[in-house]
Amino acid sequence: MKGLNLLCCCVASLLLLGTAEEVEDASEPTKRDRSHLESTLKLNEEKPADDVSGVLQRLRKIYHSSIKPLEHSYRYNELRQHEITAYPGRTLGSSATDGEITSKPMVLFLGPWSVGKSSMINYLLGLDNTPYQLYTGAEPTTSEFTVIMHGPKLKTIEGIVMAADSARSFSPLEKFGQNFLEKLIGIEVPHKLLERVTFVDTPGIIENRKQQERGYPFNDVCQWFIDRADLIFVVFDPTKLDVGLELEMLFRQLKGRESQIRIILNKADSLATQELMRVYGALFWSLAPLINVTEPPRVYVSSFWPHDYQPETHRDLFLKEEISLLEDLNQVIENRMENKIAFIRQHAIRVRIHALLVDRYLQTYKDKMTFFSDGELVFRDIVEDPDRFFIFKSILAKTNVSKFDLPNREAYKDFFGINPITSFKLLSQQCSYMGGCFLEKIEKAITRELPDLLGSIGLGKKPNVLSCDVTGCGETPKNRYRKP
């Protein structure tokens, strides 16, 4: 009888142990295979890094010698205070540092709260279950702007330290105040992907909270990161498709950047097929009034986190969508130098147009002034109605500038409100015997130096910093205003 009782106790113990192991296995979700992520982003390839140091040095030299003088002389940074109305789209810093020119491509994550932005970054970098994984949860968790960048070891950097280091290209963020710097944090991670790209996680948009309650100008900070982002992921999930005032303002700030925007419908494996189709249509219905372009941004539908897809879902479709997004990200990384040079050239074109317009305003002011004229009243008439004096039309006629590149006229009312017209010099006076003319130098950079530098990358050449065979930098600009 005792032996029978002992046998029953042993069997019961084994059954309880097996049940406990099953419960433990059920509590740990299956992890997703990461091989496709590593192969698509080429993280396992042992190949030497691209030698772009010579190109970057040449690009810095072109900017500092040919673009920056005219930019400072005509205070282009003051026009940028009204850049949303003057120049919609990406712009360079008011005084670009070498760190801003040589920075890695930036990928910006935007969207409502708790849609999976931080989880997506953790998944891409494999940070789950590590001391430096980004905190995630069903409630609003990310209250800081988090910059994830490469470093020799895992390290956290405070915002005040990042703003004080000009080599990191975040020093312009000081203008948003100390309250914001307390909400800025950097994380250095020794990851191969971060050697080529930088991720920025942002606080989730909460429609029932006023912007003033954040303690810093949230929309202005978002605009700063939007202006510098090479790729912008706007993330949604099936439960947060409504569009409020803050999200509407965000898309207004994204105007002109549609080519960099990618819409992500995250957590797609949480829905059945029919529900997913309805949610997909509802997402487009909500965003249609905000994205007024002929071709809408690309939409990726998947579930971006380390756990396996839910059973009985379209895992093959979700995997293909994820690979397409990774290929999109990898293409931005591969084309980083071409994009950087093209961006600097676009910035140079805008600086040149701005200088030509200020020169035209100044020349018109001098022509209208007489001995008995009131200078303030004369210039007010010119600024209030520039078309009456053919300010913008004369620029189009004489300088072969596209009318689509001209800034908004209203921006110059504010610009000249803080910059008196008499504080500027005519372009004809911006010349020196040794340095040449500012205008000719920037035109040479736009038409010759930057296109040749871009062509050298396409041909696989490595331009030498000390050699000017490719760019013709050794030629002295002609000074057409110097008397022979």
User: How far is the N terminus from the C terminus?
Assistant: 124 Å
How do the SSEs run, as a string of H and E? HHHHHHEHEEHHEEHEHEHEHHHHHEEH
Overall mean confidence score, pLDDT: 81
Largest sheet: 8 strands, mixed
Side by side, the strands of the main sheet go 3-4-2-5-1-6-7-8
DSSP strand content = 5-15%
Give the beta-strand count.
Answer: 10
Roughly what percent helix?
40-55%
Our Rg estimate from Cα atoms comes to 28 Å
Number of distinct helices: 18
Structural class: alpha/beta
- Identify the overall geometry: elongated
Could you walk me through the main structural features you see in this protein, from its secondary elements to its overall organization?
It contains 18 helices and 10 strands. Helix 3 runs parallel beside helix 14 (336-368), helix 14 (336-368) packs across helix 15 and helix 14 runs antiparallel to helix 18 (438-458). Strands 3-4-2-5-1-6-7-8 form an 8-stranded mixed sheet, sandwiched between helices. It has a two-stranded antiparallel ribbon with strand order 9-10. Strand 6 (231-236), helix 11 and strand 7 form a beta-alpha-beta unit. It has 484 residues and is an alpha/beta fold.
Topology:
Layout: H1 2-27, H2 35-40, H3 53-73, H4 76-79, H5 83-86, H6 98-101, E1 106-110, H7 117-125, E2 145-150, E3 155-158, H8 159-164, H9 178-181, E4 184-189, E5 198-201, H10 218-228, E6 231-236, H11 245-253, E7 261-265, H12 273-287, E8 298-301, H13 315-334, H14 336-368, H15 375-384, H16 391-399, H17 409-418, E9 431-432, E10 436-437, H18 438-458
Helix pairs in contact: 3-14, 3-18, 14-15, 14-16, 14-18
